[in-house]
From TrEMBL:
Keyword Hydrolase: yes
Gene Ontology terms: biological process: acyl-CoA metabolic process; fatty acid catabolic process
Domain HotDog ACOT-type, chain residue ranges per copy: 19-132
Family, similarity comment: Belongs to the acyl coenzyme A hydrolase family.
Record keywords: Hydrolase
PANTHER family in the cross-refs: ACYL COENZYME A THIOESTER HYDROLASE, ACYL-COA THIOESTER HYDROLASE YCIA
Keyword Transport in annotation: no
GO molecular function, one term: long-chain fatty acyl-CoA hydrolase activity
InterPro entries assigned: Cytosol_ACT (IPR040170), HOTDOG_ACOT (IPR033120), HotDog_dom_sf (IPR029069), Thioestr_dom (IPR006683)
UniProt xrefs under Gene3D superfamilies: Hotdog Thioesterase
Protein name in UniProt: Acyl-CoA thioesterase
GO CC, alphabetical: cytosol
Length: 150
């Protein structure tokens, strides 16, 4: 059985959280999110990554977005019940109707923040949609910045 204590025997466990960045989402998986061995389901992690990635996409789109692609998804290390997960998301590409976001997930283990490891990374693409759920053009970046200055 893999446990938090032996999961990183061949890796550097204390990568630390990215300095100077704020997570989009922080969550701790519960026993219901894991199998009988305490390993958190990949699908649960994928759902949380999708939520975290949608937050900057929604801000950039100034409204509703829908996930249209999971471009890449890499599980680097297992996630355990009790890990505190931090999800960092950055926009990496903007199209006419779409926003591509890179998401990194870090796990703080043992509740003492002594062991921190990057457990997942993914790139997802979202499309801005209107109330009719059809693609719509993204607003110009300048209009979003002007609205924030008010």
């Amino acid at each position: 059985m893999t446990t938090p204590e032996n999961a990183f025997s061949n890796t550097i466990a204390n990568a630390g959280l990215p300095p100077g960045k704020m997570p989009q989402l922080r969550v701790m998986p519960a026993p219901s999110d894991a199998n009988v061995y305490g390993d958190v389901f990949g699908g649960w992690i994928m759902a949380q990554v999708d939520i975290a990635g949608s937050l900057p996409a929604t801000r950039r789109a100034n409204g509703r977005v829908a996930t249209i692609a999971v471009n890449s998804f890499l599980f680097k290390h297992p996630v355990f019940v009790g890990d505190l997960l931090s999800f960092y998301a950055d926009i990496v590409k903007v199209g006419k109707t779409s926003v591509t976001v890179y998401v990194e997930v870090y796990a703080e283990r043992n509740r003492l923040q002594a062991d921190t490891v990057k457990v997942t990374e993914a790139t997802l693409t979202y499309v801005a949609t209107g109330s009719d759920r059809k693609p719509r053009l993204l607003p110009p970046f300048e209009s979003l910045m002007a609205a924030q200055d008010r």
